[in-house]
Specification:
The protein has about 120 residues and is an alpha/beta fold. It has one domain: 2,3-Dihydroxybiphenyl 1,2-Dioxygenase, domain 1, CATH 3.10.180. It is about 20% helix and about 40% strand. It is globular and about 45 Å long. It comes from Larkinella knui.
Length: about 120
């Protein structure tokens, strides 16, 4: 059984070339604190309550990288459980201090499961 801990972040897409406009809106208009650093895919990260909001430029198309990311406590067991049901897992760029993978639900929604590591 997957042991969900909390929602870690939500990634939403912004049109290509709109990163600075997004930074101004989320950082100035919504007054969110930007998380500094070089993030996967050139994403912008902001703190919002006790989670993060990730913004990433993405070309329009049928598939999206938008997703919720759930922190869990048993990533290896979750992999086994999903694979035992024939769910295909995919992997993305590495993030220091986290292990993670992605999968799609039957409706093609992308979902990330992650676990923090020491």
């Amino acid at each position: 059984m997957i042991q969900f801990k909390r929602l870690d972040h939500i990634l939403i897409s912004i049109p290509e070339g709109k990163k600075e406009e997004a930074r101004a809106f989320y950082g100035t208009v919504l007054d969110l604190d930007e998380v500094p650093g070089e993030h996967p895919g050139g994403a912008l990260w902001f703190s919002i309550a006790d989670i993060q909001l990730h913004l990433r430029e993405e070309a329009a198309g049928p598939y999206s990288k938008r997703h919720p990311a759930f922190e869990i406590t048993n990533l290896d067991e979750a992999k086994q459980q999903l694979e035992s049901h024939g769910i295909e897992l995919t992997y993305s760029s590495e993030i220091d201090g986290r292990q993670r993978f992605f999968f799609h639900d039957p409706f093609d929604n992308r979902i990330e499961l992650l676990q923090f590591v020491d």
